[in-house]
Amino acid sequence: MKQAIVVYSGGMDSFTLLNEVIASGEFDHVHALTFDYGQKHSKEIMFAMRAVGGMNVGQHKIVDVTSINQLLDSSLTATGGEIPEGHYEEDTMKSTVVPNRNMIMISLATGWAVSLGADTVFFGAHAGDHAIYPDCREEFVEAINEVTKIANYQSVEVRAPYLDFTKGEIALIGRKLHLDYGLAWTCYNGRAYACGKCGACQERLEAMEFAGISDPLEYEK
Amino acid sequence: MKQAIVVYSGGMDSFTLLNEVIASGEFDHVHALTFDYGQKHSKEIMFAMRAVGGMNVGQHKIVDVTSINQLLDSSLTATGGEIPEGHYEEDTMKSTVVPNRNMIMISLATGWAVSLGADTVFFGAHAGDHAIYPDCREEFVEAINEVTKIANYQSVEVRAPYLDFTKGEIALIGRKLHLDYGLAWTCYNGRAYACGKCGACQERLEAMEFAGISDPLEYEK
Fold this sequence. Notes:
Two copies of one chain form a homodimer. Chain A is of the alpha/beta class and 221 residues long. The first copy, chain A, has a single domain, classed as HUPs (Rossmann fold, 3-Layer(aba) Sandwich). The first copy, chain A, has helices at 12-24, 43-53, 90-93, 101-116, 127-130, 138-148, 167-176, 199-211; strands at residues 3-7, 29-36, 60-64, 120-122, 157-159. A five-stranded parallel beta sheet of chain A has the order 3-2-1-4-5, sandwiched between helices. In chain A, helix 1 crosses helix 7 and helix 7 packs across helix 8 (199-211). The interface between A and B is large, with 43 and 43 residues.
């Protein structure tokens, strides 16, 4: 039996990835793993739960890792500072980096994979992340595979198939799969409607436009 | 300012390591990181807190990661099965393996290191662990360094200086440093006194004997 785990935040990239891995038919069971790390946009998590209800997902685990926040320092977590507005730029967005986030998430996903006997962990890093986040680069994915290959009795492969895709190209995959992006939350602010102004919203809207999708999500007027 | 973090369980190996790193004088501040991952021997944690009180430790963080247990499956965590008695043997002790434990702990320690601006993470894997735990081997430490070097804006080095030391040799270091091993808990059972029978106790007692130390810890009659 071939099983995979998809690190699934509830945002548009991992929502697309989870759907694509299921649609590929490569795995008998595809499980989803969502982290509640106290992010201000925990609304993502509610969207993640709702979306999974309509998908052919094996197990969906939501793991509360908020206790880890005492080790980390970032404006993305509830105890941190203000979310910067405007486009992602290295200077402003560096403050939204959760230190070592991908290594932590992949470590935990790999632990679950070993428990389940799953041999693959997927995560949705994409080309737009490269410039800002060192742990969204090819060399990071290669290095982490050298660890997950040997850290346990069973080998786990980490795959990041969107590494060379822009967010617009990810939206194109979603369009091809007829995904409902009203089920995916992106905004870094956790208000009733998406703000449309933060870096995450702006990137999303540009991606939708690139893919010719009219974003079904509700935005603040 | 040069800072280090020592992954510190409260057991004799990491107790020795923490003391040795402080005594080395290589770092301006040495911080200790203890994980509460729901282990049955959480008594270790109480011992860790008490021991740190008498040491020149910068910050000591105890991070509750018990929510992670829903992902893992092991007799070491409170929801798992019985602790096997007798000497460590691959078959019986495989069941005490927490999947991907060292990668998870090092990921979190590296996150904290980045937050603090510390450049080194120490952990106390030793030669006796090699046969059983893949994540206590030289190749694991090498591979994980390739990740921690590039996963963040700042590089973090992971050091496991006891990798080629037996537990007896670690006790010899402790003897040289005049450590009080009554401050370090080892037993896998969390009762009032150490059981003296589990694999962990047996290894400790053999190490003490090798180093010519009379173990000051109290054992069940």
